[in-house]
Amino acid sequence: MCVVEKWREDPFYGAVAVVKAEGYVVGDFTGGIHGAFRDYVELPPGVYTVGGEECAIEPLSYPWHFSVPYMAARWGDVVELRIYATEELEVPGGFVAKLADVGPFSVYLAATRGASYVVKCCGRSRRFKAPHPGEAPRLSALYEVLPDRAGPGRGCRDLSKQFCGGTLKDVAELAAGAVDFADGLYLHPIYPAMSYHRYDVVNHFDVDERVGGWAAFYALKEALSKVGMGLVLDLVLYHVAPRSPLFPDGPFVIKSAEGARLVKKLVEILPREALRGVFSGEPPYETFLKVWLMPRLDYTRREAVEYARRVVEFWAPHVDGFRLDVAHGIPPEAWRAALEPARGRYVFGEHVGNPAPFYHVIRGFTAYFLYHHGVKRLGEGVEEVARGVNRYLALTPPSAVPHMNLFLENHDLDRAASFLSPDAVVMGYALIYSLPGVPSVYMGGECGEVGRAEDHTNRRPFPGCGGHPLKSFLAKLFAARKRLGLSAGPAYAYTRRGRLVLWRGDVEVEVERGRAVFTSPGGSLEIFI
């Protein structure tokens, strides 16, 4: 059970419920980890988990709608809406479809045109002024690369522990092969770090010599510029490595100062491999998921926020955007201050749950809900996929949908080809390239690579695959996506004759195993693998 203390008007959400708690507030909106909210959280209407229990926040009245970014966006002359109601509604002159039932109410999509619109429902009729034009990212698709695993691999036998020797030169070669299906490179951490994945950062203000240092970084930037690709860099600000100069005297939550100092001494004299058997039990400081080598920063302290801002400010001139690691663990207002130097750049955060209380600060997130309820059900039948797509759209603000990162796989997940048939993989890529948002292809995905997260075979070194039918199919999808302007605008999924159909306003996309058919006022385009 959750306790709503009061409601507060809000320019982004319309109104939010203030939910009280004691200590850290943990729920699906924090991805199950603590750090972002303490003593209370402000939530728009919806169904959440708080402290392991269901929390239903019901609107104060119906229809529940405001002409604010959380519920309305304008793309050209089309106005896209989300409306909460307990019965069918009407938007005169517009398209209306129920997306999903959410607890005691339903979420409806509406699309209309004009300077104003009317919502009729529940014995009421209300007129709203159309919102200001929305903004979609300049990047329309990403190619995701883990630097250490770019290239053929050099002497690594244990994929979970060892460096495999990938460099930014290898990254540049992979990116050159992705220009036909992506216009941005999503680059995992490149900072000096303790592990091959580089999420245990030692120095945020440098480029690891193992990947080639600054010279290789500038060469990568030049190579990307020549082929018209932007660069999105992974920012790791929830935690650092204990070898970081910040630790342990910086802004951390220290439970035992003596224990933290002992850890610092050990990590400075022992190689990482030797530390695996040393640390066990509860760390003497707060960490990411109780990983001793990832002490988390305390963003209730001004020093942590200022440090994060300095990191963003340092890298912003070098990149076109950022991916925010563990974004759901840092308070929204800390993000607001830290991201100020990133204005005008594409930013999306990692979030494995429901990002609802973060959208007013970070526009886009990793679309894990779509992954779990749409992508993973591609083998179960198109009805399940359509239901999952619509529920994802119901829970995502129309202003945020174009900024969401859509994927079939990433470095944390099983390869799609490991649990889906080849035809279902094709169908999945057609789906994410036809929905609004920013689809990404994880290196090797363009060739149907297989691998599992549990044994890190999803992170095998990848030297590229030359010509491949799936790669050619992705290129055709990317061209159609750009030509038809599918990166933003309303979407609704349904089924027809056993096929998945996406309504995209003036465009209809019919997706089935092995092909996609795009129908628009300009004609029909059929893409086969």
UniProtKB/TrEMBL annotation:
GO terms for molecular function: hydrolase activity, acting on glycosyl bonds. Residues 144-481 form the Glycosyl hydrolase family 13 catalytic domain. It comes from the Archaea. InterPro entries: GH, GH13_cat_dom. SMART domains: Aamy. Keywords: Glycosidase, Hydrolase. Gene3D superfamilies: Glycosidases. GO terms for biological process: carbohydrate metabolic process. This is Alpha amylase, catalytic region. The lineage of its organism: Archaea, Thermoproteota, Thermoprotei, Thermoproteales, Thermoproteaceae.
